[in-house]
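During data preparation, a discrete fold description was generated, and the record follows.
___
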Amino acid sequence: MTSKVLDAEAVIEQFTDGMTIGIGGWGSRRKPMSLVRALVRSGVRDLTIVSFGGPDVGILCATGQAKRVVYGFVTLDSIAIEPHFAAARQAGAVEAVELDESLLVSGLRAAGRRLPFEATRSGLGADALAGNPHIRTVTSPYDDGEVLVAMPAIPLDLALVHLNRADELGNAQCLGPDPYFDDLFARAAARTIVSAEAVVTTAELTRNAHPSTLLLNRTMVDHVVESPLGAHFTSCLPDYGRDEAFQREYAQSASSPDAWQTFRARYLDLDDAAYRANLAGVR
């Protein structure tokens, strides 16, 4: 079988203007930050970003690349409000589609199953429907006649996820305590790029880990990128926890345009090797 391993810089060629991109992880946990930095360096614009959001959303709002954000929440976890996203939303610089977490899961699941919608009780009687008039209800065709929410599918052009290990064929493994919904992002997407802390042989994936840790199989993945510290500064357990000092520096970069430009030049407008070198210089 053909290797799906892609050079980190070649990832940039996978991005185009106007894409709908789903980004895995959860808040400030196991975000594919090296892929997000590649997205920044690509310079593509008018993006729709779908995410259980954290700094991925904030960065793409700060660079002006995100036109629309579909989200269940956007937070840095230990810092409750993502400052760059908050600033963009308050300025009206980004279209915000706020869903509850269950509705976002339903939309991704419907897309992954190639269905137009998923019927659910989530959102009934809640502001999620009042704030999103495009979401409709349906009446059960059976004797119960129950009215349900018909959460429309959220198809993705591309999914970006970061996991602990992968093989060159695209089988990818989560060794942390929570897979979040990365598999739903991959199934909902036309194409998926996985970055991994390490690319290992297929046999090595299950040598000391249960097969249930294999979150994505090769039919769900188009490209694999080896990226040590690829989720930094978010957590990637058990490999490393969140870098709280770095996250505070990131949050502080929202204090002024000059602070943001300094942060961007030091940590975003450069390749992974230079990023890790700059990181080593301050840690």
